[in-house]
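fyi for ur records
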Amino acid sequence: NVPHGMIAVGPNNISEGWDWCSGYHDSERTIAGFAQTHLSGTGVTDLGEIVLMPYLGAPKFVKGTGNGDGFAVTYDKSRERVSPGYYSISLFDDRLSVDLTAGDRVAYHRYASNEPFGLILDLKSSAKSLMARQGYHDSGIRKVDRNTITGFRLSDEWARDHKVYFALRSSAPVTEIVGENPIYALSFGETDTLEVRVAVSYNSEEAALANLDSEERVSFAEAEAKAAADEAAVAAAAAKKAAAKKAAAKKPAAKKAPAKKAAAKPAAKKEAAPKAAAKPAVKKEAPKADAKDKK
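which gave:
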């Protein structure tokens, strides 16, 4: 996948349960197909759906155990290659190779073999751990033109009523579709290398086609190079952030100078209120004698 992309294309194992929340576990030595969506680090199980699986010879329409009783196979771990934005594996004793990369909205598949081969389109399988739920509910496909197929899948693994739409376009024409819903076998005539692009949408088949068309002119090699560059840019940014954090942790903390105590200010002396000036006593005049008193 690419950072913040809609697609997370990669292998699914046969096993189901808690350790297979992402559909894949490093301890497993079986591959049941390559799904367009995966969860990682969530602690719950869902997605791992719209599965493509190459086959040689006659197609089989059950997953099986990886021992020749179905389309799932065992593989040699040493034949697996993984790098940022890229996945590769050789199957059937190195008789067929698979390369995967991703764009923002499109999964890029490349299959190559010197023998006639085709693809199983498995709409039933997905990552599964909540055994109390049914998982797969319904699906359907529609052939749009010689090279394009659209469809949908409805499930209730972790998210109930989870419906995903998809659009698939192959570099060689689809010459035949056999099988019954939800597992089909696609034939492409005589070709030694087949490139397939798959886009998804959670709105409609038309939106999935629009997502597919948005990267129509991007080749597998260009998508791989961009995915690797995007992943490298994210890794570089993370490394730079970690280095800055480490450097900051090693740097001794600056000692704070002791705070200076403010000098105590002498208490301000209150000025005595000025005394009011003494007023001179007012002499009372003796009352004037009445004329009658003078007599």
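Residues 258 and 264 are 18 Å apart (CA to CA). thats all i got for now
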